[in-house]
Hints:
The structure holds two protein chains of two kinds. By secondary structure, chain A is mainly α. Chain A has one domain (about 5-105). Chain A is built from four helices and one strand, in the order αβααα. By secondary structure, chain B is an all-alpha fold. In chain B, α7 crosses α9 (about 150-160). Classes of the chains: A mainly alpha, B mainly alpha. The interface between A and B is large, with 35 and 55 residues.
Amino acid sequence: MGLSKEEIHKVEEAFQEVYRxxxxxxxxxxxxxxxxxxxxxxxxxxxxxxxxxxxxxxxVWRLTAAASxxxxxLTVYAITSEPGAASEITRLFFEDPLAxxxxxxxxxx
Amino acid sequence: xxxxxxIRDLQxxxxxxxxxxxxxxxxxxxxxxxxxxxxxxxxxxxxLQRYRSLVFGIVIxxxxxxxxxxxxxxxxxxxYQALPGYAAKGSFSRWLRTLAVRSCCDFWRxxxxxxxxxxxxxxxxxxxxxxxxxxxxxREKFREQAARREAEEVLGHAxxxxxxxxxxxxxxxxxxxxxxxEAARVLDWGMVKTKVRxxxxxxxxxxxxxxxxxxx
Lengths: 109, 216
């Protein structure tokens, strides 16, 4: 036999009683110290990360300048060296696409 | 040293005021939060001392005794981490209460994900408790029966079978007696969602009870 509606209601009432009952809790005197230690650790990690980023900041700008210079040099080199080579391969490809594959164009075969 | 202290006596029996608390005792929460955000991490201790009993009062209701301190610590660590996002729109205590409830909810979610909750069957003692609680008796006797260890265990059995969110909303609304509006605020949910979930959780709880005691 299961529980009737009234019986379920009674069990629920008992649950409310037990839930609202005052409970004892073990409070360690070290608890507060542990929390503050955890928080200080988070703060220290945060500070270390931000100082790492601060050190990385000027380096990023210096690298940006170097990368821009390198890109410029490569562009100049690409323009000045063998200007007809790329267009020659393109022309051959359109004329006979099967004969000009990547292997040929790289000069491996 | 660990002592057993009744929750109502927490405030009185905890350690005397530390220097951090003495410095910040007069300051309001927003002033302290501004100090913490400005890099004075020790100022957080004032908030910790001011609100530890509030947080313990919530956590003690929702997690097993062996996990209370751990979850309470998690609440304050989360609060510290989320402090830059705290916009001081409402009160700090309300914000902290929501964090505490959320931490309890996450605790059960993690337990269920890791399948740490044993779904054992009820014993003969539990069945006996049920028979006694259902028998006609005076209010006083009923309260005595409800205060028994078996009552806690049966409630635990039933709650363990509920999903974490349902468990929290049921505890807040049907066991603790919060209104839908209060529960919605604490859970940081909408009113409709809270109402629907509370109703569904209660229905589920009744189904579980029928399942647990169906064969009696």
